[in-house]
Design brief:
2 domains, 7 helices, about 35% strand, alpha+beta, 9-stranded mixed beta sheet, 5-stranded antiparallel beta sheet, SH3 type barrels, binds biotin
Amino acid sequence: MSKTSGDRAVRALPPRTFKYASRGPIRVARTESHALHRHLVGRTVWHYEALESTNDAAKEALGDELPEGLVIVADRQVAGRGRHGRSWASPPGGLYFSMVLRPKDAAHAALLGLLMGQPVVKALRHFGVLAQLKWPNDVVYQGRKIAGILSEGVHRHDVFYAIVGIGVNTNLDLERLPEDVRGRATSLRREVSLYVANEEFLDYTLDQADLVYSRYLNTPPEILLRDYRGLCATIGRRVRVTAGRERLEGRAYDLAPSGALIVVDDVGAKHEVLDGTVEHLS
Ligand code: BTN
């Protein structure tokens, strides 16, 4: 059972200075809360009203001794980042957060990005949206994007971290998204009639993320990927994958143990795709 954040102690922490903000150092107020029923992910949550990017805030904080599983959440971002150097529009009403994780292996940053799509899908389903994963880690509902994940690997003082940042279109006004994104996006608010507060959605998602991460720490990737397959809309579909200038069309056949997408092209050759943008053609 997930608990609401209402029963958690929230305390104000001294404002934090971000040295590398784009317009020079800034001091930002934050609060801290703890959810002691979780093992690692989301036991400690720092909440900011606004940040440039929760992923960047997490990276900058890595110099300090951070608890594994720390979550940094912001009500809005002014320089939210998406995959492949794209920006991620982050107006108020959406949910924007990053998790500080310590993968067992440096090659696992992308794998954790894949696995952490599952808590988002489960939360959306719990609140009434039958979402699916589009490889690698878009969350879609009826072909429209409702959430995205950016997983970044970072070395600090001989420790390897994965910063997994998640943006969910919960309660934002879709009109506030850039025009080219709006037509292909949807939100929780648009798809369900019941209002779901961002805190409640985050709480449920973090409970699920904590379970996924505990499982990740004890289970071989190929077993973890079985669960991912069950939620993935891409496998079995005809797809076009674009990676830089390269393009590939074929049938998405399966996932490799690394999480790469295996695509069989029209002459029957198998390709392992590690990254790219996927379009579903069928
Ligand atoms: C994508 O689909 O391109 C990934 C989008 C990831 C957006 C989230 S919002 C929280 C975190 N902070 C960022 O700057 N980006 C991620």
